[in-house]
Amino acid sequence: MTGGRADGSRVRTVFLGSGGFGVETLRRLGEHPDVELVGVVSAPPRPAGRRQDPTPTPIEVVARELGVVPILTPARLRSPDAIAAVLSLRPGLLVLADYGQLVPSLLLDLRHGALNLHPSLLPRHRGAIPIPAAILAGDPETGVTLMRMDDGLDTGPIVDQRRVSLAGTETAPELEARLAAVAAEQLAGTLGPWLRGEIEARTQASDEATLTRPLRRDDGRLDPAHPAVELERQVRAYQPWPGSFVETPAGRLIVRAARAIPGRAGDQPHTFVANDGDGVAIATTDGRLELLEVQPAGGRPMTGAAFRRGLRDRWPAWLAARLA
After folding, report:
1. N or C: which end of the chain has fewer CB within 10 A?
2. Is 70 exceeded by the pLDDT of residue 37?
3. Domain ranges in the chain?
């Protein structure tokens, strides 16, 4: 049997996405033999750059490259006008990846449903930040879940899952790029059988669920009251936003790369310590956080060693300062 339905016709499909995670999925969807891509929904353009020019999302850019019409950019998908605009396209299927808004119930009750590609092994890490959450937790693996959406937050039945092993060195952007490729391949291989009714979605085990929340700017503050291994995960997880930082005698110091190493006798938590050679580290309650790359307030990125050398005669004052 070929095509999305028994009669061989293609299923009218609308894609919803905003971030880079969904770009390759949109490309694969546009060439999928079982669907007809009849529209794309994305976030409105936002000011960016020094001139604050309105900038379209990565998804809108790719949709224009593919020649998809229309491209809808409602501020609120739940508004009656936005819902009506999507339904006017007569979709039989929605596909969502990294959209950023809740999908109203009226758009979920389609013949083939609404499928969401979520970058975690649901029900673990439901919610807004599944990729940083996996890094923060030190998970040995993560993956991508293709689920049929319901009215809950990432609670719908699972259509397919793909697992990815973690080395424990990934940054959030690196892991997102890796999972984005997995998601695109996963959808391409699963969509046909789903549309033909060959896959039965399975209910999530809600008792195993964990929930993540949106990040705030102050989440990036490095707290030496936590073990160094946890702070090292934070540095990797919170790239590019909110980043990781400490408050120093000269202002905020952004930590762009770090490594957890054993502490030494005499270390006082919440202080800077000299590391081997010209290195610099933060003493924590369990181990040291070696600063491999930093960016001083108003300065450029540099190695931790270059930063320490630049302090010169101010270094003793930094050693004596207590970090908040």
Report:
1. N
2. yes
3. 11-212, 217-320
